[in-house]
């Protein structure tokens, strides 16, 4: 892996935009912001040369092959070309789509397995050892949000399968990390309710309501308040499927 921060940033930019052409202007803006140095374009070309050399060394091939087949000059920019099967991100998206489709069809076991397989491709939160530009920051936020949405879908599938006891610990941890995420709190309330822990379910609502009133000055959504009432009344609608 390149050690220079700008080289790492450029490699990250290419990895987040595989098989998509990147203009020189977009890359310069990402690396240097709105006030790049006069030498920015020449320096960028040097960075591309250095990345090609590094890739050639890692792959054990000639640098010219990298320039011709992988990190390609494309008009007024560059294109980082890789087969879709080589990308964890592509496999994640494919499995997530398949899992969401099975969930929509009510095939909960298949959905849970596919969504879990998608999430298994993640190796933790994306941590960068350089200061990213706006483009990289925006893409990382998008990826993290996508991962969280897939995680919610997997939890929904597991709840439908009656795995509420196994989910309590995971959800309790998640609401610490996502303290204003109403949907995760809802799922924890349901899991607690199905475990016969009504008091814990009600405490989740109370703590969340106090937090968003204090931090945001708003009340929970009508759906969340309806869930609270359902727990209070011990509604059979919240029971685990048989």
Task: Give an overview of the whole structure.
By secondary structure, this protein is mostly helical. The chain has three domains: 5-82, Arc Repressor Mutant, subunit A (Orthogonal Bundle), CATH 1.10.10; 87-161; 163-242, Alpha Horseshoe (Serine Threonine Protein Phosphatase 5, Tetratricopeptide repeat), CATH 1.25.40. 67% of the residues lie in helices and 4% in strands. It is built from eleven helices and three strands. It has helices at 5-15, 24-32, 40-59, 63-70, 88-104, 108-119, 134-160, 164-177, 182-194, 198-216, 222-232, and strands spanning 22-23, 71-74, 77-80. A three-stranded antiparallel sheet has the order 1-3-2. Keywords: DNA-binding, Transcription, Transcription regulation. Belongs to the AfsR/DnrI/RedD regulatory family. One of its GO terms (molecular function) is DNA binding. InterPro entries: AfsR-DnrI-RedD_regulator, BTAD, OmpR/PhoB-type_DNA-bd, Sig_transdc_resp-reg_C-effctor, TPR-like_helical_dom_sf, WH-like_DNA-bd_sf. Residues 1-82 form the OmpR/PhoB-type domain.
Give the amount of beta strand, in percent.
Answer: under 5%
- Average pLDDT score: 92
CATH topology of the largest domain: Serine Threonine Protein Phosphatase 5, Tetratricopeptide repeat
Helix-strand makeup class: mainly alpha
Number of helices: 11
Topology pattern, helix = H, strand = E: HEHHHEEHHHHHHH
The CATH first-level class of the largest domain comes to Mainly Alpha
Task: Tell me about the largest β-sheet.
Answer: 3 strands, antiparallel
> What is the fourth-level CATH superfamily of the largest domain?
Tetratricopeptide repeat domain
Number of strands: 3
């Amino acid at each position: 892996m390149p050690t220079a921060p700008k080289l790492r940033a450029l490699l990250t930019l290419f990895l987040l935009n595989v098989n998509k052409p990147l203009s020189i202007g977009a890359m310069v803006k990402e690396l240097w912001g709105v006030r790049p140095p006069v030498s920015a374009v020449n320096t960028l070309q040097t960075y591309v040369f250095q990345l090609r050399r590094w890739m050639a060394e890692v792959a054990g091939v000639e640098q010219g092959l990298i320039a011709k087949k992988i990190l390609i000059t494309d008009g007024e920019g560059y294109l980082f070309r890789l087969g879709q099967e080589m990308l964890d991100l592509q496999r994640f998206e494919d499995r997530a789509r398949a899992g969401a489709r099975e969930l929509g069809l009510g095939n909960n076991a298949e959905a849970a397995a596919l969504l879990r397989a998608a999430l298994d491709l993640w190796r933790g939160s994306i941590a960068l050892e350089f200061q990213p530009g706006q483009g990289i920051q925006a893409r990382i936020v998008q990826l993290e949000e996508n991962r969280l949405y897939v995680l919610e879908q997997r939890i929904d599938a597991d709840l439908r399968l009656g795995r509420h006891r196994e989910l309590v610990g995971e959800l309790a941890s998640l609401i610490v990390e996502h303290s204003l995420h109403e949907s995760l709190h809802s799922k924890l309330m349901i899991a607690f309710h199905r475990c016969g822990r009504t008091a814990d379910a009600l405490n989740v609502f109370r703590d969340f309501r106090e937090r968003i009133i204090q931090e945001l000055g708003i009340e929970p959504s009508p759906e969340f308040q309806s869930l609270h009432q359902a727990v209070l009344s011990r509604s059979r609608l919240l029971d685990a499927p048989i």
